[in-house]
Amino acid sequence: MSPMLMIASLAITATLVFYTIGVFAERRAGHLNGRHLALFWAGLACDTTGTTVMTIMARTAGSEPAPAIHGITGLLAIILMLFHAGWATLVYVRGRRHDDKAIAQEQTFHRFSTIVWLLWLVPYIIGLLVGIPMIHMATVPAVILSVIIVAILSFFLLRPANKIARA
Fold first, then answer.
1. Quick one: how far is CA 31 from the chain centroid?
2. For 43-100, what is each residue's pLDDT tens digit?
3. DSSP three-state, residue 72
4. Which pTM was predicted?
5. Who's near 17: CB < 8 A, 6+ residues apart?
6. Which of 42, 87, 121, 165 has the highest count of CB atoms within 10 angstroms of its CB?
7. Are 37 and 86 in contact (CB under 8 A)?
8. DSSP annotation string for the chain
């Protein structure tokens, strides 16, 4: 494995770790804190780094380019992560007021965080399925499988909580 590929792979893997911990720690805590915010920004920085290094490698190596859908979904994921981290910062700053509007924004943000994480998984899974030599799946099946995996995760993560009335 080339040093650049190693850097890119480590950066993308760090993105998965930072973003997953940030989103699920925030969900569990029920509120956004500075640690979550730092994890979101770290995930964005790692994803941007990994994607940039992989793009440079693809352009200079003259090798087979990544599937267009992977590039498009990857770019959309970075844009969405940037919006998410920016909104997280705004919600965090406003949340320090503890008024009703800030609390409502934070509750909306919790669900949005999960959606952003799920959408980020699509290009991540496509990259794994297409890019790992042992798997090296064709583009269309990789896209279909990644969407199926994310849809299954969405079903479990986005369904409304069961409210059991206690007598």
1. 19
2. 999 999 999 998 888 777 665 556 678 888 888 999 999 999 999 999 888 877 667 7
3. helix
4. 0.85
5. none
6. 121
7. no
8. --HHHHHHHHHHHHHHHHHHHHHHHHHHHSS--HHHHHHHHHHHHHHHHHHHHHHHHHHHH--PPPPHHHHHHHHHHHHHHHHHHHHHHHHHHHHTT--HHHHHHHHHHHHHHHHHHHHHHHHHHHHHHHH-TTT---HHHHHHHHHHHHHHHHHHHHSPPP-PPP-
